[in-house]
Amino acid sequence: MLGVAERGGGLAYYTRTAIDSLRGRLLVTESTSRPLVYYGRGPDGLETGLARSQAMADIDQAGAINVAARLGSGQLTRVTRDQIFAWDPTFIIAQQPSFYSALQRDRAWRGLDAVAKKRIYLAPADPFGWIDDPPGVNRVIGLPWLSALFYPDVYQEDVRANVREFYDKFYRVKLSDKQLEALVRRAEAQPGETRRPIDVPLLGAEPVPLPGPSPVPQGRPPGRGGPLPGGPGPQQ
Hints:
The protein is of the alpha/beta class. It has helices spanning 5-28, 57-61, 81-87, 97-105, 113-116, 139-150, 159-171, 177-184, and strands at 36-40, 47-49, 65-66, 76-78, 91-94, 120-122. It has a domain at 33-184: Rossmann fold. The strands form two sheets. The protein has a four-stranded parallel sheet with strand order 3-1-5-6. A two-stranded antiparallel sheet has the order 2-4.
């Protein structure tokens, strides 16, 4: 309808190939463990996704266990700090910088294993969130990023090279070194981070299928600021 069938077909092929390749590596790995992951949405990080929710689709696909899934199925829910401590996730991913900063600086979070071992990350979100916010093609780059965090022994590709390729293909933006650094510096392994062992039983190998589309939340633009840091926004 838009007259760009060739470009659309190319992007669809890129997406299918990337997902199938990643899924294949996760299915054949000899790993006997899956990490427990908490995804903290909102300024305080106390909103998260339930089992099979839109918000957790990438995390499910990346072969991790959503600690909030034990609360049941649905979309989003509010949790307490005590619940997060009871779950004691292996990794914590913050949607917004305020929660990421609190995990690093607030004494109230220091008893968590993920905090002690520096397994806390800020999800990139320019121009859109790599995990959700909104669910869309932005999750195509979120999936290899998460897989590289959770399974560094299995996913050994150059994540930064994949990020450059994705932004060029989907947003027609050629990232400068400064832009790339701004995107990923708080989303990568940090000095002193403990990567192994994870010691959580592997509960089946087949990833949960990606949910269908859902409406974009109203009241604010998705992502954390629209244009890419240090440069113009994506071209139409």
